[in-house]
Amino acid sequence: MKTKSILFVLALSIGLFATSCNSNDENEGDTIAPIEGKWSIVKVGTNVSGVETLTDPPQNVSGCDHDFMDLKINNTLVSGDYDSTVSPCALTTVSGTYSKGDSKLTTVINGVTITYDIVNLTLTDLKLKNGNAISVYIR
């Protein structure tokens, strides 16, 4: 009887393991990393004919914190821009909304809607693409 119980548990374990390793195409590209949080822009660039070119963002003012977007859990966002034109590292913010779905991020700020492809989303990195334009953010 003990041998049958061990065999049953072993067979059940193998079945559960095989089921948990099953690939499902409909979930491919999805991630469990949350998009909510404060994301600082660290690279911008283009992708032309499959060649990606990234540089430091010209909008980041030297000596200041990086420009950012803060995606709140209630689907609102705050976009922050540091500028030293009037005073050193003056922060200007604008508010808007966002939605995420099917590897897309859509933002609405001042009535302007922009939809980005989410190229990469991890706990620390976010890479967005809009047409040929690429933006890379970190938390």
TrEMBL record:
Organism, scientific name: Flavobacterium granuli
Assigned keywords, A-Z: Signal
Protein name as annotated: Lipocalin-like domain-containing protein
Every Lipocalin-like domain range: 35-128
One protein family per Pfam: Lipocalin_4
Signal peptide: 1-23
